[in-house]
């Protein structure tokens, strides 16, 4: 209990004094996970809507694969991204392994299936005849898709929150593709693991508390937007 209280006090001290290293790690965490969430939002919502609204052979198999991808182990994602970005891999010439860019790619791979799967469920949960009603009023197919997405905006916001939650808290892929390099690729999760391994439990708890606060603030803002949309 004493270690936990010391961790809370240290977290408070680091936040109040704006510790440069902790501030750098926190901002990098937000930058990487925010970029990955934005990518997953663009790819996941568009592809999820396309799969949900289109009819094609093997649709159920595709949806099953997407739903399976929602539970991708981060270490497996990290392994394959590392293999692709390794110097002898297909994209080794880019030389982005052990950089923040590689971490964004790995986190986006984790988040895209989450956003896509929830988007598919949200679009399929709309009234079946709604599409025909919109088209009968003279809307184009693009306008129809946009209206359907507006109707499903609340669960789509939940999809974005789920995607962000899945990447801000992951550690396996970040360590594998980022290397946990101080001042360059070290984020809150990897720093927490490192400090725990070194026996610095107070600092590890402090970093964990800061991570929880960051996740709470971001999801809190998205929740406020979601609930405002609900009242309209």
List its salient traits.
0% strand; mainly alpha; 232 residues; MetI-like fold
Description of the molecule:
This protein is mainly alpha-helical and 232 residues long. The chain has one domain: MetI-like (MetI-like fold), CATH 1.10.3720. The protein is built from eleven helices and no strands. The chain has helices at 2-16, 20-53, 59-69, 74-85, 100-124, 130-136, 141-151, 153-168, 172-178, 188-197, 201-231. The longest helix is centred in the N-terminal third of the chain and has 34 residues, at 20-53. The radius of gyration is 20 Å and the shape is globular.
CATH architectural group: Orthogonal Bundle
End-to-end Cα distance, whole Å, is: 46 Å
Give the C-alpha Rg. 20 Å
- Assess the beta-strand content as a share of residues: under 5%
Largest sheet: none
CATH superfamily: MetI-like
Assign the CATH class.
Answer: Mainly Alpha
Q: Count every beta strand, where a strand is a DSSP E run of 2 or more residues.
A: 0
Helix coverage percent: over 70%
Q: Structural class of the secondary structure composition?
A: mainly alpha
- Oligomerization state of this entry? single chain
CATH topology: MetI-like fold
**Count of alpha/pi helices:** 11
